[in-house]
Design brief:
By secondary structure, the chain is α/β, with parallel strands linked by helices. It has 23 helices and 24 strands. Among the domains are: 248 residues, TIM Barrel; 96 residues, Methane Monooxygenase Hydroxylase, Chain G, domain 1, CATH 1.20.58; 49 residues.
Length: 668
């Protein structure tokens, strides 16, 4: 469901400041930017304002306050979790990619063209693909599909620009290929990429039946292996493509049918999220030599499709690690153009049109997931110790309790590590005594409170020291709370669960205050894997995230960045949590506007996906309520309350919702 409206008026945001905090005056928004490494991963698309909120910066002199947008959505009854899609960031990314290649082509006097395509599998949401197609077609961008449903979508969407390049990868049956051939006659610029000998036979058969000379592509398996998480998706062990010997057989078959001039595109898969630029150079060098040899055999290849691989620096480390990359967009473009040009010049063959399929780099930056904090649990509630005099004066106090009191009272800067170790040993001994039946539950609880209070005291003293104590670095993780956020990691951040992808995460408000808590984040699914415990920090990846103490009924929101690639497409319905709201935000004349709101899944819709009939469920509940009234188990008023919940639950969001006038919500 889509709703359109515009909002350019500023929103009055409540800003909570603790004037009693003596460190607050020393903390600046620059410290916050450093803490969350904003400049390192954001590519300039996100900044922190002087008022302590996060700004999206789609282009120069354009700023969108995320806290204002979310507050505006709340005023309209749209509460987090919500996905913010920034159309202008998407447009800017496409322009930067196109400009990087075309600038290099001009500088290096490259004689071919550049035709990037967007693989819609990266984010298949209609609004995203439509916007990318609209903006991208002006820059020469095409679309890539890998399945029959994707082909059906793109064939119709390319109607306004039939010259838009469509690349068809993946396995294809006869009807799929027939549709491609007919689309060519319709006027579409469409290229079926042959993945096996059977597909080639079908292309030739349908081309002959419909009397058309099609534009054909072929994917080749290179010897050069892949690298990183998806290293097995490239090289001779890759899933798709022809071995070189099979490629030569294909050339022979096309020659027999007088169709050598139809083979216009040579494709390879270099890998996904390539982290090391050397791998890009190696792949292109091998592919270019294959291209040159095919040209000498009389094949009419004009396009060289190097596939995807252009990475996104999720961690901002600029390193050859899985979540990072050791090169820039400009370096990538320069190396691609230089390698292809130099080899083609040496082999005395024409410069081909370069095709790339770098979908991740196109869309990752343009989406931000916002989730509200629901509450937390953990050791922070035990910062204050219990009274120690009664413990010392009692006749039956077990020795581990006395040892914990001693550890607490002996904490000082000169012997911090010893106090911490003493507390750990006493805590373990107390647990053993309880398991043997020699300690009461009340004494066990007292031991727990003493231990946590000692840990907090040790950390407080540690943080005042100029020199770090390595053996106490784990205290932040030990004392971290579990902070519950209103989202499903399996639905909205599946790569964080499946492949341990690290996304930049930070609050969107109160960044002019120093965060005072260390937390890990947990979602609302009933699954122990529904948590995040790896975050960016100035010291690299840490196991905790620093946030602020959230007051009761305070709207405090956490943002998850760089989620535009794959996350929406791969999300699942674990615990029946569906899609979140998605909001399209643009800027015009210095103001931000909400152009589209795509409502998230209702419980009724999610149940329907799994073949439940919501109307039948509602009817069953109505009958059960009437039986309960007749049996005097429920009153009529009670059944009305229950059915109101049931009906509103079916039509409402799958996520937790704020309080209503007669019902407390998750923040209460």
């Amino acid at each position: 469901m889509t709703t359109n409206y515009t909002s350019t008026a500023p929103i009055n945001l409540p800003v909570a400041h603790d004037q009693t905090n003596p460190t607050q005056s020393a903390w600046t928004t620059a410290d916050a930017a450093d803490l969350y490494r904003v400049e390192a991963w954001s590519q300039g698309y996100f900044q922190i304002s002087n008022r302590g909120t996060v700004l999206a910066c789609p282009a120069e002199n354009q700023q969108i306050d995320l806290a204002e947008v979310v507050a505006g959505l709340r005023e309209r009854g749209l509460h987090p979790p919500v996905l913010l899609r920034f159309t202008d960031i998407l447009s800017d990314r496409l322009n930067k990619i196109a400009r990087a290649f075309r600038d290099e082509m001009n500088d290096q006097h490259y004689k071919g063209d550049y035709r990037p395509v967007y693989p819609i599998k990266v984010n298949q949401q209609h609004h995203v693909v439509e916007e990318l197609s609209r903006v991208g077609s002006k820059l020469g961008f095409g679309l890539e599909v890998g399945s029959k449903p994707e082909l059906l979508a793109v064939m119709a969407m390319s109607s306004p620009d039939p010259h838009q390049l469509i690349i068809c990868n993946g396995f294809k049956d006869s009807r799929y290929i027939e549709a491609i051939i007919l689309a060519s006659k319709l006027g579409r610029t469409i290229v079926p990429v042959v993945e096996n000998a059977g597909e080639l036979r079908q292309v030739i058969r349908h081309a002959d039946n419909y009397d058309i000379r099609p534009t054909i592509g072929v994917r080749v398996k290179l010897f050069t292996p892949g690298e990183g998480r998806w290293k097995d998706s490239a090289g001779f062990r890759s899933k798709f493509g022809l071995f070189v010997s099979e490629l030569l057989d294909m050339v022979g078959t096309l020659k027999e049918h007088d169709m050598l001039d139809c083979l216009k595109l040579l494709h390879c898969h270099a890998g996904s999220q390539i982290q090391n630029i050397r791998k890009v150079k190696d792949v292109i060098a091998e592919l270019c030599h294959v291209y040159a040899e095919l040209r000498r055999l009389g094949v009419g290849i004009e396009m060289l499709d190097i596939g995807g691989g252009l990475g996104v620096d999720y961690t901002g480390e600029q390193a050859s690690d899985a979540g990072s990359m050791n090169y820039t967009l400009e370096e990538y473009a320069a190396d691609v153009v230089y390698r292809i040009k130099s080899i083609c010049d040496a082999e005395e063959v024409n410069h081909p049109t370069i095709v790339t399929e770098c979908g991740r780099a196109m869309v990752a930056y343009s989406s931000v997931l916002i989730a509200d904090v629901l509450g937390s649990t953990g050791p922070s509630r035990f910062r204050d110790p219990p009274p120690t005099d009664p413990i010392k004066e009692a006749d039956d106090t077990p020795q581990p309790l006395l040892d914990l009191v001693t550890a607490l009272e002996s904490v000082d800067a000169d012997d911090l590590v010893a106090s911490f170790h003493d507390a750990q040993q006493a805590r373990d001994e107390a647990a053993s005594l309880f398991s043997l039946g020699h300690m009461t539950l009340d004494q066990r609880a007292t031991a727990e409170r003493l231990f946590w209070a000692t840990c907090h005291k040790v950390r407080d003293v540690r943080d005042t020291l100029e020199e770090p104590i390595e053996s106490l670095a784990s205290l932040d993780e030990l004392l971290s709370d579990v902070c519950f956020c209103n989202l499903s990691i399996f639905q909205s951040l599946p790569d964080a669960w499946a492949i341990d992808q690290i996304f930049p995460i930070m609050p969107i408000q109160r960044l002019d205050e120093e965060p005072d808590r260390h937390v890990i984040l947990a979602d609302v699914t009933c699954d122990s894997d529904g948590k995040l415990d790896a975050f960016l920090s100035p010291d690299g990846v840490r196991r905790t995230l620093r946030i602020h103490t959230v007051q009761p009924n305070e709207d405090y929101d956490i943002a998850f960045f760089l989620v535009g690639a794959y996350q929406e497409t791969l999300g699942d319905l674990h615990n029946l949590f569906g899609d979140t709201h998605a909001v399209h935000v643009t800027t015009e004349n210095g103001h931000w506007s909400i152009d589209d709101v795509v409502k998230g899944d209702t419980a009724s819709e999610v149940l329907g996906y799994l073949q439940y009939d919501p109307e039948r469920l509602l009817s069953t509940m109505n009958r059960d309520c009437e039986r309960a009234v007749r049996a005097k188990r429920l009153t009529v008023a009670e059944t009305r309350t229950l059915m109101r919940f049931y009906q509103s639950g079916l039509s409402g969001s799958t996520y937790l919702e704020p309080a209503t006038d007669d019902q407390p919500g998750p923040h209460a």
